[in-house]
Amino acid sequence: MSQQHPRPESPHPSAPVAPGTLAVTAGRPPRVQGGPVNPPVVLSSTYVSAGDPTGARLYARMGTETWEPFEEAVAALEGARHGIVLGSGMAAIAAALGDLSADDVVVVPRHSYQATLGFLDDRAARRGVEVRRVDIADTDAVVTALDGATVLLAESPTNPMLEVADLPRLLAAARERGVRTVVDNTFATPLGQRPLALGADVVVHSATKYLAGHSDVVLGVVVTDDDEAAADIRAYRTMHGAIAGPMEVYLALRGLRTLHLRVERANANAAELATRLAGHPAVVEVRHPSLPTDPGHERAAAQMTGFGGIIGLRPAGGAAGADALVDALRLWVPATSLGGVESTLERRRRFATESVTVPEDLLRMSVGIEDVEDLWADLAQALDTLVRRAGRHPRP
Ligand SMILES: Cc1ncc(COP(=O)(O)O)c(C=O)c1O
């Protein structure tokens, strides 16, 4: 049962294997005559076991051969030694944070994924954990908040405001102060940034999003180079039972094989649409790190590979305008979640749990891999309805 994952060897001895090649090759079974090219999916809750159980597979909550190829592939993409799959992104975050107590002080972006903030608020209420919500783009303020903290749980870019953190500086400052660091890399994907190389202790993903990529599974994964952290997270997974089903892991690995193609296309589509949206008269604000005017542009250009596939859009007409835009779209799917092949969007403040500092009219758009002209044609016709609407209800 391998728990640490060697990376596939490069065919060019002096060069590392490129990420796109890793996405395709990592986690394959050994090459043996007559063996399968893909890892088999094992549907068994228990394993043959008699007498001393040490070292043998025993029970599927503790580990299965279906998890390992996916874990190995994600670990390879993140440049990590350990990958640990869990039943959802939230399970991955909970496992990475471990059992927080009243001694813990967690620093977290104020615009993190709302369920992450909800989880921390719950820990604050039930366990007395201190939670310090920060503007993650304000590096000096975050460094100040790290004094006396025990954990930095960073998202970059943030969901849904797309703020970009100065990860190298924040992770170094955390290390100097003995603060444990967890980075949620869901938005960037391992192709956009590798936080372990920037100094993070642990990286988490909602694999539900880009890693699996087809909106057909809910799954999470943690990666780390730290043997002790990996052992703790595996023990947490076994104890809490937040495990992944074999079919979900199969689908996620299948999706992962095309991660580089999907991300490349989604990023290119998003950059093009962001530029066109920024020039449209029915648009108040566009957030996408590719735009030279975006507050996160320079930082993203310096520390990321690609600007991501998520756009923040504030159309004319406030929350009602945003809702009207969503209603007028035909190709874009109104849905929560992100990172699938299909383009989706939603107004985040429709959730009472979303941070109040997120604008009421902000649409989070997850750009898919469709033809960009079709995506634009749909947006343009929906934006035109806003222009007509404004004509009917002219502002005083
Ligand atoms: C950035 C981020 N982290 C974590 C999660 C939670 O993942 P899951 O829904 O797989 O539990 C999400 C879900 O939207 C997310 O966007």
Automatic annotation (TrEMBL):
EC number(s) on file: 4.4.1.2
Domain of life from the UniProt record: Bacteria
Keyword Ribonucleoprotein: no
Pfam families: Cys_Met_Meta_PP
Class of enzymatic activity (EC top level): lyase
Any one GO MF annotation of this record: cystathionine gamma-lyase activity
Record keyword DNA damage present: no
Span list, region Disordered: 1-38
One Gene Ontology term, aspect cellular component: cytoplasm
Protein's GO biological process: cysteine biosynthetic process via cystathionine; transsulfuration
Biased segments, Basic and acidic residues type: 1-10
Cofactor(s) recorded in Swiss-Prot or TrEMBL: pyridoxal 5'-phosphate
Similarity section: Belongs to the trans-sulfuration enzymes family.
Protein name: homocysteine desulfhydrase
Lineage, top ranks: Bacteria, Bacillati, Actinomycetota, Actinomycetes, Micrococcales
